[in-house]
Design goal:
three-stranded antiparallel sheet; alpha+beta; binds zinc ion; two-stranded parallel sheet; 6 helices
Length: 131
Amino acid sequence: MTEEKLEVICDACRRPIEDGEGFLYVELAKVRDLWSGKADPDTTALSLESLMGRPVGPTWIAHHMACAPDDGGDAYDVPVAQVRTWPRLVTTTARLMSKNWFPHTDWNAVLEGAASAGGRRVSRTSLREAS
Ligand SMILES: [Zn+2]
């Protein structure tokens, strides 16, 4: 059986990311803030981020290694090869579900983005374009 390949689109340059050239990542500092209660709903509701309509929770971002900001931040990476096909995407999702911080991230948007792009692309950008 030939597995259909998913394209992963870089959120910075909007070009496809080949195996070994990039990853999906979430900033663990944001996850920890949420976890420790620093980002409780009362304060985030009035934050500049929420006023500007940006997501306030930890967000998964796809980047080429060359496009990723090298800010020294602590991030959890998922190499694009691990979401390259639907079976791998599901396996990776199952593995991530064992992490206690995972439900606080927007992985659901990653899955919805992949499904909404005709099942051929992993891209948050496609989700935004569709709406
Ligand atoms: Zn890029």
